[in-house]
């Protein structure tokens, strides 16, 4: 195996080990906004008040 | 005030107006279709149409009660089918949004005396929250237990690590626009009835929030409520859908 092939293989292995983690890693300083409704009791149109 | 067409328009506006480093989650809790006392409600005039309107909202999470499910039809519309299986125990799933791992736990219906949760249900809901905390940045519970039981649940862990960062309440009891609860490290939202408003809560400084650290209002957490009044436009698709019911009246 040539040196270039070996380097490529090492690079791909390193990339494969990083990618799953990257998919789940959130960057710092994030905010989560939750918009919530419940207890609507089947109302579908605006109420008068 | 209120109405599903305005809600849809508001959700769509928030969903499409991106803000850097802000993840938005849209959650519907219990009793969206039915009443807590099983009484007659407007959705009963055309329950499948109202169920389709909810399905079109594209909620990220929802808790349907048996009373709600009795009105959605079987099987329920595609957008609600994911939540059609009633949780017999507190049961969570982890959603990944922008790299944030968000655990959402649906609480079961209360099985104790006078419609209260049993001690075993308290214990199991706590365990599920603690279990999911290992794999999530934020843990959210959705409850149909009512205000009294929810407060008792949060206070139970006031001296210990809170199993939940956010408890989204539902069922009997008054609504409020958001509280820091359970000793100061959890947050609690209760909806105002009849869908007149959308409550919101914002947690900052994620994913580093620790469950044992007290939250500070306006620094770590903010609460709010958006009234669905005439200033919020009505979504045409939902309006057209609901027109079927109005025409039948």
Explain how this protein is built.
The complex is a heterodimer of chains A (49) and B (249). Helix content of chain A is 45%, strand content 16%. Chain A has one helix spanning 3-24; one strand at residues 30-37. The model of chain A is unreliable at 18-24 (pLDDT under 50). A 6-stranded mixed beta sheet of chain B has the order 3-4-5-6-8-7, covered by helices on one side. A two-stranded parallel ribbon of chain B has the order 1-2. Chain B has a two-stranded antiparallel sheet with strand order 9-10. With 249 residues, chain B is of the alpha/beta class. The model of chain B has no long low-confidence stretch (mean pLDDT 93). Chain B has a single domain (4-248), classed as Purple Acid Phosphatase, chain A, domain 2 (4-Layer Sandwich). In chain B, helix 2 links the parallel strand 1 and strand 2. Classes of the chains: A alpha+beta (49), B alpha/beta (249). The interface between A and B is large, with 26 and 71 residues. Strand 1 (30-37) of chain A pairs parallel with strand 1 of chain B, so a sheet runs across the interface.
Question: How is the topology of this model organized?
Answer:
The complex is a heterodimer of chains A (49) and B (249).
Chain A: H1 3-24, E1 30-37
Chain B: H1 4-16, E1 22-28, H2 47-55, E2 61-62, H3 66-72, H4 78-81, E3 91-97, E4 100-106, H5 119-133, E5 138-142, H6 147-156, E6 166-168, E7 176-181, E8 186-190, E9 197-206, E10 221-227, H7 236-248
Parallel strand pairs in B: 1-2, 4-5, 5-6, 6-8
Antiparallel strand pairs in B: 3-4, 7-8, 9-10
Helix pairs in contact in B: 2-7
């Amino acid at each position: 195996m040539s040196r270039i092939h070996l380097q490529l293989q090492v690079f791909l292995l390193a990339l494969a080990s990083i990618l799953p983690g990257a998919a789940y890693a959130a960057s710092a300083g994030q905010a989560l906004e939750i918009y919530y409704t419940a207890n609507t009791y089947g109302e579908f149109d605006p109420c008068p008040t | 005030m209120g109405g599903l067409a305005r809600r849809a328009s508001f959700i769509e506006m928030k969903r499409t107006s991106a803000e850097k480093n802000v993840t938005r989650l849209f959650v519907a809790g219990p009793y969206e279709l039915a009443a807590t006392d099983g009484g007659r409600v407007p959705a009963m005039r055309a329950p499948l149409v109202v169920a389709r309107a909810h399905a079109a909202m594209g909620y990220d999470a929802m808790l349907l009660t048996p009373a709600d499910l009795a009105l959605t039809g079987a099987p329920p519309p595609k957008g609600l089918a994911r939540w059609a299986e009633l949780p017999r125990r507190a049961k969570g799933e982890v959603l990944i949004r922008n790299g944030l791992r968000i655990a959402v736990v649906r609480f079961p219906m209360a099985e104790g005396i006078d419609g209260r949760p049993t001690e075993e249900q308290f214990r199991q809901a706590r365990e599920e929250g603690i279990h999911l905390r290992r794999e999530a940045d934020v843990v959210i519970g959705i409850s149909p237990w009512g205000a009294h039981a929810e407060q008792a649940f949060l206070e139970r862990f006031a001296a210990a690590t809170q199993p939940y960062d956010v408890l989204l309440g539902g069922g009997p009891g008054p609504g409020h626009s958001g509280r820091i609860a359970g000793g100061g490290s959890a947050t609690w939202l209760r909806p105002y009835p009849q869908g007149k408003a959308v409550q919101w809560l914002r947690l900052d400084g994620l994913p580093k929030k620790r469950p044992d650290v007290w939250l500070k209002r306006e620094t770590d957490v903010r609460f709010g409520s958006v009234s669905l009044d005439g200033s919020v436009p009505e979504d045409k698709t939902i309006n057209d859908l609901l027109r079927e019911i109005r025409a039948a009246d």
